[in-house]
Amino acid sequence: MWGGRFSAGPDAIMEEINASVDFDQKLAAQDIAGSRAHAAMLHDQGILSSEDAASIDQGLSTILSEIESGTFSFSRALEDIHMNVESRLAELIGSSAGRLHTARSRNDQVALDFRMWVRDQTVAMQASLSRLIEVMLDRADEHADTIMPGFTHLQTAQPVTFGHHCLAYVEMLARDRSRMADAYERMNECPLGAAALAGTGFRIDRHATANALGFREPSRNSLDTVSDRDFALEFLAAASICGTHLSRLAEEIVIWSTPQFGFVRLSDKFSTGSSIMPQKKNPDAAELVRGKVGRMNGSLIGLLTVMKGLPLTYSKDMQEDKEGVFDAAETLELCLAAMTGMIADMEISRDAMRAAAGSGYSTATDLADWLVREAGLPFRDAHHATGHAVALAESKGCDLAELDLSDLQKINSAFTDDIFNVLTVEASVASRTSFGGTAPDNVRQQVRAWRERLKS
Ligand code: ARG
Predict the structure, then answer these.
(1) Rounded to whole angstroms, how far apart are CA atoms 132 and 356?
(2) What local confidence, expressed as pLDDT, does residue 1 receive?
(3) Catalytic-labelled residue, pool 49, 274, 315, 359
(4) Cα–Cα distance between 456 and 187 in angstroms, integer?
(5) What would the mean pLDDT of 67-93 be, rounded to a whole number?
């Protein structure tokens, strides 16, 4: 009647749709840590005898080693990690295993396990982000005065330094790191003891378990506690935003490493050849970082959609919260590591960057600024005069710096020889000393400031 793969009838289908142990076994360590803290608290509160507490703790520790050594056999018939652990505990210590679930439900248990897992990930991501930031700072320092074209609309706009460009990513990545840190603080409330949804009549000590499991405090509302997945959403949102930043950098690396740009050369470790075109060196790692943000965004939208419109409190829909988060965490970790490696190993072509920075009349704004500063012109008039100078250079097929002074004076009589001092790309970047500007001294100062900040 059911056909296809479900030859065993409706029970098999129920098991297929219901079981989560294939993926939630990732939460085993958290599940066991939570159970041990819970059992210890029950004992301290006089709810569990010393003998029961001791054998439960012993049994749980055995189960943890079985899982870690890969000898534990997970059963889909037992649905999830929680029931798998509890059932094995009963095999190991007998009926006192059944006392562990006093004053607890799988609803607060899963909220606890998952929250602890995500909490660990926010810490891991901060560490990985710090590593990438450090590599970026090294490159920024090394290239504080390497000149490259700055772009708007991907059209040459004004010369900037490569160091300044690196520091732009340091700012983004540091925000990503602080988003992870913020999310950590908000999620650092212990769900254990909310029980099924209403709390419990047993005289439990939620502050004790919160403390034992490294939480700042217990959560305040049992209904919210078992139905909240904001911590997972915030982690996914932070991961997606970070992935977005990485994808922008990845895209720049793809562009910069084309023979047409030639700004950077990827190391062999982070590029591949073509099986048919021997001349090619493909930026696969960068392309994959760019592409993988798609699955992180998918996980975020997926969980937002699962949670949308769910009535309080727990509904089984919420079992769909885990796989996307697991995948996003693994993906982000991998992307951060790949980007760190690529940036550290990438060769920068100062010459290609310098040549491109000087093309496209990139110092036109400097010419206009000179007219404002030295000849007192309103900026709009200076902009107009500069437009004429660019048109003239274009018609002569030369750079602004190659125009004759007499030609420039025909456009505006205020021009003097001094104008040629501001038309080089070096003079241009050196002049951008406003706070946050691209001048090499600014870049070095920002690198120092970031290194100090990272230490604290
Ligand atoms: N496997 C479930 C989940 O991941 C655990 C909680 C089940 N609770 C329940 N009342 N069925 O959400």
Answers:
(1) 27
(2) 47
(3) 274
(4) 23
(5) 97
pLDDT of residue 6: 66
Q: One-letter amino acid identity for 207?
A: H
From 50, 95, 153, 395, active-site residue: 153
Whether residue 45 contacts residue 203, with contact meaning beta carbons closer than 8 Å, is answered with yes
* Share above pLDDT 90 across residues of the chain, in percent, rounded to a whole number: 90
Query: Ligand 1, residues 319, 320, 323, 326: which to mutate, most atoms within 8 A of Cβ?
Result: 319
Structural contact between residues 204 and 45, judged by C-beta atoms closer than 8 angstroms: yes
Question: Is 383 a known active-site residue?
Answer: no
Q: What residues are paired with 216 via a beta bridge?
A: none
Residue range 411-436: mean pLDDT, rounded: 93
107 CA distance to ligand 1 centroid (A)?
A: 6
**Residue 274: active-site member:** yes
Q: Is the pTM of this model over 0.70?
A: yes
Q: Is the CB of 106 under 6 A from ligand 1?
A: yes
- For residue 322 the two structure tokens come to 């885990």
Q: Is 205 left (phi over 0), alpha (psi -120 to 50) or beta?
A: beta
Nearest atom in ligand 1 to the alpha carbon of residue 316 is 12
Answer whether 110 contacts ligand 1 (Cβ < 6 A).
Answer: yes
Matching residue, tokens 């997606």: 240
**Sign of CA pseudo-dihedral 292, 293, 294, 295:** positive
Pocket of ligand 1, candidates 18, 31, 80, 85: which has the most ligand atoms within 8 Å of its Cβ, to mutate?
Answer: 80
- DSSP strand pairing (189-190 vs 217-218): parallel
Q: Is the dihedral of CA 428, 434, 437, 438 positive or negative?
A: positive
Instruction: Please report the sign of the dihedral spanned by the C-alpha atoms of residue 136, residue 140, residue 143, residue 147.
Output: positive
Please check the confidence at residue 409 and state whether its pLDDT lies above 60.
yes
Report phi then psi at 339, rounded to 5: -65, -40
Nearest to 173 by CA among 72, 273, 100, 248: 248
DSSP states along 159-176: EEEHHHHHHHHHHHHHHH
Q: For residues 209 and 42, what is the distance between their CA atoms, to the nearest angstrom?
A: 10
SS3 call for 282 = strand
